[in-house]
Design a protein that fits this description.
homodimer; alpha/beta; Rossmann fold; 3 domains; six-stranded parallel beta sheet; six-stranded mixed beta sheet; 12 strands; elongated; DNA-binding; DNA-binding (chains A, B); DNA-binding transcription factor activity (chains A, B); transcription cis-regulatory region binding (chains A, B)
DNA sequence: AGCGCTTACGAAAGCGCTTCCGCTACGATG
DNA sequence: CATCGTAGCGGAAGCGCTTTCGTAAGCGCT
């Protein structure tokens, strides 16, 4: 197949009456070129409909403008929303996005990041909670540091302790808000079905909850299960023996699982038991009963991450903190009178 | 940054005692090389931990093994599930996946495909219904034909009439099954909230429904709205005046919207009105009431599509037809006695 | 044994770009 | 006015791979 037509950088250079080297500097924003010439070259390139060849660029040592996105599992609405935000923003900037799934294991996450870097990808976004496991986090930090040193841009969503720009959901604050909400309703014995305890997200939300609850002298019982609907079901079973009046799912998927398990046990929500979640995924409003949850702006977080990556780096890593919002629906209410 | 360590193809060639050319042929499966030598080279490459450089490959005129995936909107659970299947399978084969969103417009879809091709991507999967708009489909067909002629592999999920391998959900069959289900329950006046009527998926499902319904002499009222939860809400409003006893959402998102709108109008489901959907997205089981739906195996469709593009092409496009399954939950029942 | 044919392999020419290096021309400096 | 430093630009060397093209070796045939 002859891709005859596509203009190359030489064509642009020729048309603009400059050397190939200057044209390259003009297009890819290198230094050592006068603004006038650069502008002229860019105009000519525009006219010719020039599109840089990714592969040539990658080969020649430059970084490719593709954005790599690592999520745990794209089928999870939390990550799907983030991905949607990332792709939307990237697409507006003419950047393409490569997605890799870490399948919720840290080894895989690291492997996926390294695979992305081997492709000389210019920017990488890692979404999802970090792990408390410090040796693994250290390796990741090292990998990313080397990458950014080499001119790569990196950002993380929802994890701290990594030396790159980050978008941080207000997990602790959301926990506090939710804890207060339950305490205000009158709950004094609360259970939480947490995800794996070595996840930062889990630790932060639980700590927030505990803080919000303890002001009112309420107790928190923690059980840990996978961060999924099934995990929620298992957790609900654990907590059913525990004499609590409210169960918190640490994300909406878990909360939905909890709702299902309670329904199976003919326990009414919220009359007999309150159930709340985190995130406010799209369906939270549609389950039965509609779920009270702490909204985390996933889509916007994705967009923020792209914005960070497109901005030139500064010495200190930047952090964008996002807000949370308590969405009170039908699944939370006062504890039973008894 | 010195990426000193990474072995190159020359290194492999040298270590194996063959020429660069032979090594290339051995690795990228070219012809004109004896099986023995090829096997030997591959073994050496393996030992050295050789990883081909995408960009060099792309530059030299080959196609890059990356898989491009075009979906309408990754935030939609239907596409998220497909994407998850695609990424999972691709990852097992060591292929990376680039995702582009068409944002539900045909122009965008075509533009995204062309952007992908410009990157010399070796394989492309287009997910989502095709459009009845024939001129646009013709352009797409032409683009893909040229691509496959140049050695690219393409597959589509859920659309016909394109001259490439395809994975086809049983939309018509699912419609028939659902129509029969409602007819058997006793419904005689059924409404359907359809997506845009120029989508193949919509046409097929509606036709199936009508067929399944008409056997029992039932009538079908069609209204059309965007293929989203909000579209479902709007459609439900339309149909409320229409004296129907069951409303079909053409996908689960719409059905969930319908459920919400009926709840707002204090119409009980399924006592006063049955509601059913299509797809069986993860949350369909958790909404109130749990949604009766026709299950389409999205995740598996994604995997099938990857399998198709990894298989060498044959003259005739292949088709993998998938099954559907009626999942009866709580949202469908007999029509009110009146 | 000699002929042409096929097949396995090596040498070398790029693919389109970035970047190092060197040159020129200018303004600043003493 | 002579000298040095610097900014702007062009020449040219690769980046790692695929792919002609050419050659040598192996085959069956007359």
């Amino acid at each position: 197949m002859k891709r005859a037509g596509l203009p190359r950088l030489v064509d642009v250079a020729e048309a603009a009456g400059v050397s190939l080297a200057s044209a390259s500097r003009a297009i890819s924003g290198g230094s050592g070129i006068s603004p006038d010439v650069a502008a002229h070259v860019r105009r000519v390139a525009q006219q010719l409909g020039y599109e840089p060849n990714m592969h040539a660029r990658g080969l020649a040592g430059g970084l490719v403008p593709t954005i790599g996105l690592v999520v745990h599992e794209i089928g999870d609405p939390y990550f799907a929303d983030i991905a949607s935000g990332v792709i939307r923003s990237a697409s507006l900037e003419g950047r393409s996005v490569q997605i890799a799934q870490a399948e919720r294991t840290p080894e895989n996450e690291l492997a996926q990041v390294q695979a992305l870097l081997r492709q000389r990808i210019g920017a990488i976004i890692i979404a999802g909670s970090g792990y408390a496991d410090t040796t693994r986090e250290a390796t990741m930090a090292e990998t990313l540091a080397e990458f950014t040193l080499g001119g790569g841009r990196a950002a993380v969503i929802g994890r701290h302790h990594l030396p790159v720009d980050s978008v941080l959901p207000d997990n602790h604050g959301a926990g506090v808000t939710m804890g207060r909400h339950l305490a205000e309703l009158g709950h004094r014995r609360v259970g939480v079905v947490a995800g794996p305890l070595d996840l930062n997200t889990v630790a932060d939300r639980v700590a927030g909850l505990r803080a919000g609850l303890s002001d009112a002298g309420a107790t928190l019982t923690v059980v840990s299960h996978p961060f999924t609907r099934e995990g929620g079901i298992a957790g609900a079973r654990d907590l059913l023996d525990q004499d609590v009046t409210a169960i918190v799912g640490l994300n909406d998927a878990m909360a939905i699982g909890i709702l299902g398990e309670l329904r199976n046990n003919r326990i009414r929500v919220p009359e007999d038991m309150s159930v709340v979640g985190f995130d406010d995924i799209a369906v939270a409003a549609d389950v039965a009963p509609a779920l009270t949850t702490a909204r985390i702006p996933m889509f916007e977080m994705g967009r923020h991450a792209v914005a960070l990556i497109l901005r030139p780096p500064i010495d200190e890593p930047r952090t964008i903190a996002t807000t949370h919002e308590l969405i009170v629906r039908a699944s939370s209410g006062p504890p039973p009178a008894s």
